[in-house]
Structure formats: C-alpha cells, structure tokens
Write a structure and sequence with these properties.
- There is one protein chain.
- With 363 residues, the protein is α/β, with parallel strands linked by helices.
- 33% of the residues lie in helices and 15% in strands.
- Helix 1 packs across helix 6 and helix 7 runs parallel beside helix 9.
C-alpha cells in the first residue's frame, strides 16, 4: 500500500512495518487472548513487553550501566518541571536558550529554582548556537539545561558540550525529544536526557528519561511521588500505571531500529536525507533556510518561500502530491519538513522533486 509521506513534527510518522505489526496483534497479543491495551501492567505478558523494550533501548542508545531508563508520562513540557523538582538541589540552574523549547524550559523551571540564562541566540533570530566557550555559567549550579535539537527553529547541536572542559561540575540536562535515536549520544557528557516519544520513538503518551544514578534521591519535598525519579526507578517505572500501549509500540519501534542496523545506520540515512533536502533548498531561487549550516537540524528543516504569497498554493500542491504536514509552526510561519527516522529517503526525494516542480512552474 502506497501511503502519503507525513512530514509532521509530532506526533510524527511511524514505520509502516510497526503499524502493520501492531494492527495484526491488536485483538490478540501472541496468543494471550488480550490486546496489549487490555493487559495488567503487572501481568507476565506486559512485564515481558516492558523488559524487552528496556533491553532493546539500552542496546540501541548504548546506555551505560550507571544510568536508569525510566518510562514516564507528561511529555517534554512536564519534564521542564519534573527535572528541577528532582535535581535542583543547590537551588539554581543554568539554561542555554536556543529556541522555543528551551525558552519554555527555563520559564517553567523558574517556579522551582533560581534560573540563569547562560547563553542565548535570540539576537540572531535563533539561527545559530552560541559557542560553549562563551557561556556564562553559574558557580555551584545544579545543572545546565540544553535542548539539543530545537524542533521549531531547526538548530541542532552536532556535538554535546563537555561541561568539565568549561570548568563546571554541574549535570548536563539534555532535552533530546526531536532527535533521540537519530544519532549516538555521548553519555560521558550527560547527567540526564529526556525525550517525548512521539517524534522518533513511538506514539504520544510515553516520555523517556535516562538519568545518572547519582542524581537520584535528591527530589524537593514538594515533588509528587509519581514524578520522583528515584521512586519511579525503584518501581521499574510502575509506581503508577505506565502508558502500556505506548511502551508496547515503542518496543516495536526499537526492534525495527535494530533491524535497520541500529543507530549508526540510522545516522547515515539521516545525514543523506538532510543533505538531499538542504541541497535542494540552497540551490533554489524560491526557497530559503536561514539556519547557519554548521548547526542545521537533520530532523526538522524549516524553510520559507521568498514570495510568501505562494504559501497556500505550495501547501495545496504538496497535499495533491501526497506530501502532508509541511506547514511551519504558527510561531515562525513558513514551511517545515520533519524527516525523522521513519521517513524514508524516497519521501525526501518526493519532496525535493515537488520543490523543483513548484519552482519551475513559477519561474
């Protein structure tokens, strides 16, 4: 079956193999007589699903033994509160604000701790990343928060900053929601990483948290029990009922990723897809991407038509060509193509062909 290509930023396209497998198992998972969404989260069937998902994710992301993998709820927005509730024990945290998501993160954290803006790219229109050497870090801050890929603004860290090299012993907190599992993560630099699943890992409803063990057990007294990382870790993510079906689907995605060759293979594919699309935009007289080339996102490619009066015609034609969800975020306008792991290179090529065709008709 030929499906349209869905460029949504999230919830995003899923691997078709995963959707087909889930459909086949909807009424009866492996002869259990139950759908996964009907299972007790403490029953042997779901425990098997959960444990396999944990093992596969640890293998895929090469998570070290001294990190806990937590399956939580609330998405990235909730983590903006849950992180300071758990690890802001000094009472202060530094934030590097590079786009819409890190801006929301620092605003939320102010409810629970003192916030210092260590660096920002606001003056250049969110089109670059400030050099870590220029960051104004606070002595004694509990953590430094970055969003390693800004979904709306299209900037991405090509390497994670090493806070030790900057003279800081703070934990690096990474919101990696929109590029997790698209490239390796250097865990030697990370204290905590979190990601909403609905872009590269699975459906909305599941939030991944990978946290170094020494950061557990320091939650503020006001932290709700269900959001206390140590409580969640001690109960294998089942202190409260977890998002069982979302974990199951994510587990299928993890197995799909392994069949594709794992994260190194996905990174190579993502590099090729991004290069194909950026090349088409850069060599056009109609389209423009404003992000500095050295920090362009491989996952989220915002672009603008130089004649914005053509926007509606462009989107209508795209839908007619089976290219969906290309309208940019309302806060920035323009267009955006999200090309996560599940987007095949054929989908990017179809978009590039349409870009050329649309421009040619108007030249």
């Amino acid at each position: 079956m030929n499906r349209p290509y869905n460029f949504s930023a999230g919830p995003a396209a899923m691997p078709q193999e995963v959707l087909t497998e889930a459909a086949a198992e909807m009424l009866d998972w492996h002869g259990s007589g139950m759908s996964v969404m009907e299972m007790s989260h403490r029953g042997k069937e779901f425990i098997a699903i959960y444990e396999q998902a944990q093992l596969d994710l640890r293998e895929l992301l090469a998570v070290p033994d001294n990190f806990k993998v937590l399956f939580m709820q609330g998405g990235g927005l909730a983590e903006n509160a849950i992180v300071p509730l758990n690890i802001s024990r000094s009472g202060s945290a530094d934030f590097v604000v590079t786009g819409s998501w890190s801006q929301k993160s620092q605003q939320e954290a102010r409810k629970y701790c003192s916030v210092n803006i260590a660096a920002s790219n606001e003056l250049d229109g969110r089109t670059s990343l400030p050099d870590p050497a220029s960051w104004q870090l606070t002595r004694g801050a509990s953590y430094v928060h970055i969003c390693s890929n800004e979904t709306i603004d299209g900037v991405e860290y090509q390497t994670l900053p090493d806070l030790r090299a900057l003279g800081s012993d703070a934990a690096l907190v990474v919101d990696c929601s929109s590029h997790v599992a698209s490239r390796p993560l250097d865990w030697s630099c990370v204290g905590l990483a979190f990601a909403g699943a609905q872009k590269n890992l699975g459906p909305a409803g599941l939030t991944l948290v990978v946290v170094r063990e020494d950061l557990l057990g320091h939650a503020l007294a006001v932290c709700p029990s269900a959001f206390n990382y140590k409580t969640v870790a001690d109960n294998q993510s089942m202190f409260n009922t977890p998002p069982t079906y979302a974990i199951y689907i994510a587990g299928l995605v993890f197995q799909w990723l392994k069949r594709q060759g794992g994260i190194p293979a996905m990174e190579a594919r993502n590099q090729a897809k991004a290069a194909l699309l950026y090349d088409a935009i850069d060599n056009s007289q109609l389209y423009v991407n404003k992000v500095a080339p050295d920090c362009r996102s491989r996952m989220n490619v915002p672009f603008f038509l130089r004649d914005e009066g053509l926007n509606d015609a462009f989107l209508t034609g795209a839908r007619d060509h089976g290219l969906l969800q290309l309208k940019g975020h309302k806060s920035v306008g323009g267009m955006r193509a999200s090309i996560y792991n599940a987007m095949p290179i054929e989908g990017v090529q179809a978009l590039v062909n349409y870009l050329h065709e649309f421009e040619k008709r108007r030249s």
